[in-house]
């Protein structure tokens, strides 16, 4: 029994000395040692750890009054390891505050918790498994002369603190000490205490503190947020500061040095927010957001630094300050803004003041620096980036803009000293209109620049200073002897504080040069590997993407705001059309655009794999700044051709030789300057926008379609085609330069093109069989008839006759309706008054969207997706023909925008003379195949017609089709020679003629007789309608008139009367100018009668 009792008495003492493992709740009502955090830490310091240990803080407050003794010192305890860690955190659901207060007026509190050579310690302020900050550590020391901190990472002799992890915690000082004293959130240095518990900050760590992680903490009312103080021989290493918050909106709580690191290696400072920096220390001349002295192998990345204010009595202001001996540092993707000097100091926003002899290998890239302003009385200036000294410094892709007024000398880039400077792809802007403003101010010689090029410089005063003021870019380029590819352009940014590129920057986009070391931009979006943007932002309109895997889209169907990535076989016939923001086709993957289908891309097309556009398929790019990269294949089929026939071609891709038309052996272009054909060799490279003709094989009598594949980089965006003019005017053989249809109206109405072209386009139709002695022959022994050109302008189009190639369907009996197919060449008449130096313009806004927009040479359907204003068009097509197939057509239209004089774009001259037969309208001295006339329509119009023929005999004139108000408008042909008038709406008019030209025989009329009270007209069923003064009178012989409605030509009702039930009716109250009206009558038995008349 005594043995049992002895064993029982010994058990508690054995438990007390056992190493800790597991979770321990720290609560004031618990038994010691877990009633205070101080006691719990003392226990683990004593007994060590046998596994992971977690101290769960269950009380809301821990302080001197609850039994804590500060600083709580954690030492190197036994059993600690990477797995046997000590974690201090709030218990689940608890919000905890630990407050350390000085014991008397002389003895201060150096820290709340000190890691004295301790390893593998975690302070986690989250009360669950997230990132909320539920733990606040407060140093409430009121002793004014004590240097103090909240958490102290201290070395202990030769034993440094290792693997310290501080996260999700609020680190706060309640009371500020004297201005010159340290007041930090986390201090990493020696463990030496001075008098009255003062931290001896003048002594660096006596051992290497290593692997400290400081993550997602908030620092309040401290002067130094994180202060790492190491010696040159015992450097702190592997420190990681990530996603912490420093600063305040309250001036008295703002830090002066949020991050301050001396003698540190292998560290990262990423994703931290420093917002609100101010120095209340009149004895310390500088402030800085991030300061690094003597660092190596580090990355300062993706931090935001703003609201850094320099006030009176302070000298130098930095957002980032790098000094001393530095090697292998990277400063990238940081956003620095709102840097203000309201006092008399100097702004050096990002300053490099490094050892001049050591190769720093310093990379500063993809940073935003903006909104820098000097508003005080200082005579000092401001710099965005300043190189005060250093060797081997690379500035790549930075956007630095001083967009506020400055005093004295200010520069986006200021170079006081330095060698081996590599400055590429940056934006350096200074919009200050006060002081002396520069983009670049350099006191070093041009020889100090290893490279300086592909930068954008702009300034309200001087581009640069190098041996003197360089006011222009050319002056600066002369001074540097480099910088040949730099530009002077003001980009469009989102805002002063946000230097992301915004909207269209046509003069700026893609002006950089690719740097393999910088594959992404400030947002880590991929840069162009061909022509990236200068500055930190690669303007990417398409931030969301969806990838096709051969079956499905990864992120939904692409739209004009979603990029499409083809990573599997895609066929538009099977999977549908694609509308996308950008298009990328990956290696060995294929996108096929089938006939009548399309792919519409707002911006860039990048082809690494394969893009095949089958005949009549379309690739459309919308933005004129869009780029095309990679090779595509465009298949185009000609119309049916016969031996010796020609096809009019234009290339939709770059680099195509005429020998690409393998079935041809004769090639011509058209020389505008001499107004004649020009022979071209098979090695001629087809110019964008220019037309060429290629002849069909001479040894094949059968009709055939010639299929050609254009392989190359597709043309896109703005294309300009130089045009010459013969003394008497000339024709230009031009062509559609895109792998999609071109909207003819948009091409003709372009402001530039209107000054060059008469406004009618002519399309070769392959209509008349090729033979000797054909009227209006082309070049060579074999003849090509001028009858075979269909015409088009804003009024409409005319066609040629029925197909010459028996049994084949051709373009000739289908009118051009506004879309010019990909690969199509065509003629346009050039004005004699065209400017001496002139270029026709093509751009992406002219390209036709939608299905079936690219289906045939010269003939396509109405343009879908174009933005042209809709014109009112009222047209009638009149043709002349004979039984042998001679054919000619003219068009008359009453069109919005046309006048009754000659109008470019609305009136089209006959293309040639000496045809078999040609009919035209006559306007002054011009013979027109297309005539546009003004609205409103006048029924009294009389249009002279002329015709010429080379064969004589019997011909007939008739109407092919009509639209608009001509649907209900009678059209009469008056033959003056035979004194005959025929209603062409009711049938054709046949006549005989000899060979020759006849311009005074025919005229079109629209009224056979005048309707009036003295000349009533019988409509039908015994109803007479006639004009009576300004009103209309109706008389019925038998049936009562039930209802009457009168419409104007726009279809608007101007008079209505119901339930009349009489044999006669006269309107009243019609007040309108002379115009054509439509009278709709309904009789008592339901019969409806419609009559058009002039009121």
Describe the structure.
By secondary structure, this protein is mainly beta. It has six domains: 20-248; 285-496; 544-614, no CATH class; 638-767 and 803-846, no CATH class; 873-1005, no CATH class; 1017-1094, Immunoglobulin-like (Sandwich), CATH 2.60.40. It is 4% helix and 43% strand. It has six helices and 84 strands. The strands form 13 sheets. It has a 26-stranded mixed β-sheet that branches. It is elongated. The model is unreliable at 1-15, 768-787, 802-813, 856-869 and 1010-1015 (pLDDT under 50).
Range of strand content: 35-45%
Radius of gyration: 43 Å
Give average pLDDT, whole number: 85
**Shape category:** elongated
Structural class: mainly beta
Enumerate the spans where pLDDT stays under 50 for 5 or more consecutive residues: 1-15, 768-787, 802-813, 856-869, 1010-1015
Number of domains: 6
Distance between the termini: 135 Å
Largest sheet: 26 strands, mixed
What is the share of helical residues?
A: under 10%
Number of helices: 6
Number of strands: 84
């Amino acid at each position: 029994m005594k043995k049992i009792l002895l064993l029982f008495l010994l058990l508690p003492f054995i438990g007390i000395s056992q190493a800790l493992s597991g979770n321990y709740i720290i609560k004031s009502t618990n038994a010691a040692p877990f009633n205070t955090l101080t006691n719990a830490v003392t226990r683990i310091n004593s007994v060590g750890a046998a596994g992971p240990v977690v101290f769960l803080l269950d009380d809301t407050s821990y302080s001197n009054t609850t039994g804590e003794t500060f600083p709580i010192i954690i030492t190197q305890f036994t059993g600690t390891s990477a797995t046997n860690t000590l974690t201090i955190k709030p218990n689940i659901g608890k919000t905890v505050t630990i407050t350390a207060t000085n014991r008397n007026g002389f003895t201060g509190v150096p820290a709340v918790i000190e890691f004295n050579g301790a390893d593998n310690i975690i302070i986690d302020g989250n009360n669950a498994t997230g990132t909320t900050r539920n733990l606040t550590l407060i140093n409430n020391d009121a002793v004014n002369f004590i240097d103090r901190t909240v958490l102290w990472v201290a070395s202990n002799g030769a034993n440094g603190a290792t693997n310290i992890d501080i996260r999700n915690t609020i680190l706060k000082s309640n009371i500020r000490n004297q201005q010159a004293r340290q007041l930090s959130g986390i201090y990493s240095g020696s463990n030496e205490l001075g008098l009255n518990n003062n931290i001896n900050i003048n002594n660096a760590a006596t051992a290497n503190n290593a692997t400290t992680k400081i993550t997602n903490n908030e620092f309040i009312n401290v002067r130094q947020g994180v202060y790492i103080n190491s010696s040159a021989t015992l450097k702190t290493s592997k420190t990681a500061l990530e996603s912490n918050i420093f600063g305040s909106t309250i001036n008295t709580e703002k830090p002066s040095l949020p991050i301050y690191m001396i003698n540190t290696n292998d560290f990262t400072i990423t994703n931290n927010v420093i917002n609100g920096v101010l120095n209340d220390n009149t004895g310390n001349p500088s402030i800085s957001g991030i300061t690094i002295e003597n660092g190596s192998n580090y990355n300062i990345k993706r931090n935001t630094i703003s609201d850094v204010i320099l006030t009176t009595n302070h000298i130098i202001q930095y957002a980032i300050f790098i000094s001393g001996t530095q090697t292998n540092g990277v400063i990238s993707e940081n956003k620095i803004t709102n840097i203000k000097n309201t006092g008399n100091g100097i702004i050096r926003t990002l300053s490099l003041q490094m050892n001049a002899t050591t190769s720093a290998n310093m990379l500063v890239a993809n940073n935003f620096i903006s909104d820098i302003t000097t508003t005080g009385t200082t005579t000092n200036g401001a710099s965005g980036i300043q190189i005060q000294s250093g060797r081997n410094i690379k500035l790549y892709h930075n956007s630095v803009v001083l967009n506020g007024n400055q005093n004295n000398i200010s520069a986006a880039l200021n170079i006081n000293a330095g060698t081996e400077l590599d400055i590429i792809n940056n934006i350096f802007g200074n919009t200050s209109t006060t002081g002396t403003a520069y983009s670049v101010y350099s006191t070093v010689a041009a020889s100090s620049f290893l490279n300086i090029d592909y930068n954008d410089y702009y300034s309200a005063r001087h581009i640069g200073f190098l041996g003197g003021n360089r006011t222009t870019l050319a002056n600066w380029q002369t001074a540097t002897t480099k910088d040949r590819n730099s530009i002077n352009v003001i980009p469009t940014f989102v805002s002063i504080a946000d230097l992301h590129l915004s909207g269209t920057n046509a003069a700026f986009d893609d002006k950089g040069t690719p740097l393999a070391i910088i594959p992404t931009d400030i947002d880590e979006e991929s840069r162009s590997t061909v022509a990236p943007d200068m500055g930190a932002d690669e303007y990417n309109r398409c931030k969301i993407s969806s990838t096709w895997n051969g079956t499905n889209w990864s992120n939904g169907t692409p739209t004009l705001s979603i990029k499409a990535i083809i990573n599997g076989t895609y066929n538009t016939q099977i999977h549908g059309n694609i509308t996308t923001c950008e298009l990328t086709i990956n290696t060995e993957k294929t996108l096929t655009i089938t006939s009548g289908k399309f792919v519409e891309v707002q911006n860039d097309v990048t082809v690494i794999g394969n893009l095949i556009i089958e005949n009549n398929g379309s690739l459309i790019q919308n933005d004129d700044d869009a780029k095309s990269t990679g090779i595509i294949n465009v298949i185009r089929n000609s119309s049916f051709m016969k031996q010796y026939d020609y096809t009019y071609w234009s290339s939709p891709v770059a680099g195509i030789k005429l020998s690409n038309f393998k079935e041809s052996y004769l090639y011509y272009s058209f020389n505008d300057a001499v107004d004649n054909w020009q022979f071209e060799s098979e090695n001629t490279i087809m110019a964008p926008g220019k037309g060429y003709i290629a002849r069909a094989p001479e040894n094949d009598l059968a009709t055939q379609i010639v299929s050609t594949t254009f392989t190359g980089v597709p043309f896109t965006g703005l294309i300009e085609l130089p045009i010459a003019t013969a003394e008497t005017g000339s024709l230009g053989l031009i062509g559609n330069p895109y792998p999609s249809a071109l909207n003819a109206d948009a091409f003709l109405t372009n402001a530039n093109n209107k000054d060059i072209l008469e406004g009618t386009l002519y399309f070769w139709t392959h209509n008349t069989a090729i033979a000797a002695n054909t009227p209006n022959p082309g070049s060579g022994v074999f003849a090509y008839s001028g009858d075979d050109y269909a015409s088009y302008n804003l009024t409409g189009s005319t066609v040629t006759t029925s197909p010459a190639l028996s049994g084949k369907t051709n373009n000739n009996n289908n009118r051009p309706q506004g879309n010019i197919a990909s690969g199509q060449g065509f003629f346009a008449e050039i004005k004699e008054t065209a400017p001496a130096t002139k270029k026709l313009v093509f751009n992406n806004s002219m390209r036709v969207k939608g299905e079936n927009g690219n289906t045939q040479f010269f003939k396509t359907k109405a343009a879908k997706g174009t933005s042209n204003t809709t014109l009112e068009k009222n047209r009638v097509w009149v043709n002349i023909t004979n039984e042998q197939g001679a054919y000619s057509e003219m068009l008359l239209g009453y069109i919005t925008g046309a006048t009754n004089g000659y109008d470019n774009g609305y009136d089209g001259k006959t293309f040639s003379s000496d045809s078999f037969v040609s009919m035209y309208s006559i306007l002054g001295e011009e013979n027109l195949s297309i005539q546009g006339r003004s609205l409103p329509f006048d029924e009294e119009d009389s249009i002279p017609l002329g015709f010429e023929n080379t064969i004589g005999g019997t011909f007939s004139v008739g109407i092919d089709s009509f639209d608009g108000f001509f649907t209900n408008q009678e059209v009469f042909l008056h033959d003056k020679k035979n004194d005959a008038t025929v209603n062409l709406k009711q049938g054709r008019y046949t006549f005989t003629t000899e060979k020759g030209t006849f311009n005074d025989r025919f005229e079109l009329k629209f009224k056979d007789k005048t309707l009036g009270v003295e000349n009533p007209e019988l409509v039908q069923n015994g109803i007479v309608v006639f004009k009576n003064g300004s009103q209309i009178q109706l008389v019925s012989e038998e049936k009562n008139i039930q209802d009457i409605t009168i419409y104007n030509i726009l279809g608007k009702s101007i008079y209505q009367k119901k339930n009349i039930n009489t044999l006669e009716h006269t309107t009243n109250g019609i007040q309108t100018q002379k115009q054509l009206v439509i009278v709709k009558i309904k009789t008592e038995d339901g019969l409806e009668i419609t009559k058009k008349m002039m009121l």
